[in-house]
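pinned: reference chain
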Amino acid sequence: MRHADYVAQKSQSNTATSALAASWRRSLLKHGLDPADGRRPERLTFDELSRRRQAMDRFLRVAAPQLDQLFNLVGLSGCNVLLTDAEGAVLDQRVNAADAEQFRDWGLWQGTVWSEAAQGTNGIGTCLAEGRQVTIHRDEHFHTRNIGMSCMDAPIWGPDGRLLAALDVSSARADQTERYNRLISAQVAQTARAIEAVFFRASFPDARIVVASEDNADAAVLLAVDKDDLAIGATRAARRALGLEREGAIRPRPAADLLGRNDDLTGFDKAERAAVARALARAEGNVSAAARALGIGRATLYRRMARLGLAEKTGGLSRG
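pinned: its structure tokens
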């Protein structure tokens, strides 16, 4: 059976329940695509590509070193590294000259659009449509013209919790195996997490970045905390883990409350303890110097330390 006929049959079957079949079904019925359509992907005009790149300029600059690093790992294996926007338009890429002709012929090139609505089931489009890491291997693609490629993709989420981009590694090798795909897929996911974390940090340059959870190694669970110890930003994974707003700006909250650092102190006592602890740290444990910095006497500082639960930590302190 021809690939196009098989895809059409599976797409229209009411018993098709796999994620791949669901994507084929969307491609055929929702988007009205023909698996036998041999046309190349739509290509943006120069002006449209320039506008999209300009809109993502800060993100692209932050991501570039990570793309270079990923390409250094996979480029010699006949792979093409692509970075798209949330609509599946390829904004940046890394490819060897020896492989460029093949990828250009496939349309895996800067300025082309690989949304699922435009190209059916494919690594970039299906990753963006489902918001998850995917691998589309050869004849898992919707269009017959795309079955010669293997595509490994991971989503990148913005600081506002919204889907921002897709990171893709596509292979032109005829002998590409599913086992090798898994190795590349793991590297793609790791790089996507790194880009997401670096861009999150760059988006809150005046905040300190706190790892909100060590439990999820598959996502960047980060909080941005301001000088008043209020959480003012969170990655998508942190929003989910901590029950914060799903998208957009988050309502500032005490970081200690979100991170579960509960104790008997509340309100101004917590703020005072933080101020005393900072003064002691800056004075390298010298109580007299810390007291002078706070504008109080040394005896007063000792009393406050005891009340605030800092007395037990005075082993490394000096009286000055």
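why pinned: DSSP finds 13 helices and nine strands in the chain. The mean pLDDT is 90.
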